[in-house]
Hints:
By secondary structure, the chain is of the alpha+beta class. It has two domains: 1-43, no CATH class; 59-101 and 116-172, no CATH class. The chain is 33% helix and 15% strand. The protein has a two-stranded antiparallel sheet with strand order 1-2. Strands 3-4 form a two-stranded antiparallel sheet. Strand 1 (5-8) and strand 2 (13-16) form a beta hairpin. Helix 2 crosses helix 4.
Amino acid sequence: MMPAAVADVSNGIGYTQASDPYSQSLMDFFGAPSNQTMVQAYQYYPTTNQTLPDAYEGRNLFLNDTIEGLILSDNEVYTQTLLRWLLTDQINFTYNTFTFNQTLPSLVPHEGVSRLITSSSESQSFTSQRRGLAFRMEGDFASTPQGAAQYTRNLIQISQACQEMANYAVEV
Length: 172
C-alpha cells in the first residue's frame, strides 16, 4: 500500500507529506526537511540501495545541533577548563601564551642579590583543519528499535571521537 500523497494539480507534480510512516520516522532522526520531496515512481518498490529523500540534501542543521549538543554536554576537563571551546567562523586564529616560572623566595644575606623571577610570552597562530566522520545505516533503520538504538550509538561515537581529538590537541 502506498503512503498518502498530495497531488499539485496545477503543474502535475506530486509531493509526499509527512503523513506516511517512513517520512515521519525520518523526521524523528534528521529533523524537518528543508524542502518537500517529489514522489518518484520507483520510490515504493524494493531497491538494493536506498538514499534519503531529496528533502534532506544539503546541510542538515538538526544533525549539526545534535552532535554539537552531545559534544558540549559531555565536556571533559581539557575543553572545560584548560582550553575552552570557542565558536568561530575564522580559518586562521592566533593566541597568546604567558608563562610565569614559579620560584619560592630564598634566604638572602644582608645586601645580597635576590633571585630573579622569569616570565615569557609567546604568540602562536594556527589554521583550523577540517576533519570528518560518517556512518552508513540500513534503509529501514528508523522502523525498528534496534536501528534507532544503533543510530543513537553512532552519533555518540562521533561526539566522543571529536572530544578525544580535542583532548589530544590540548595535550600536544
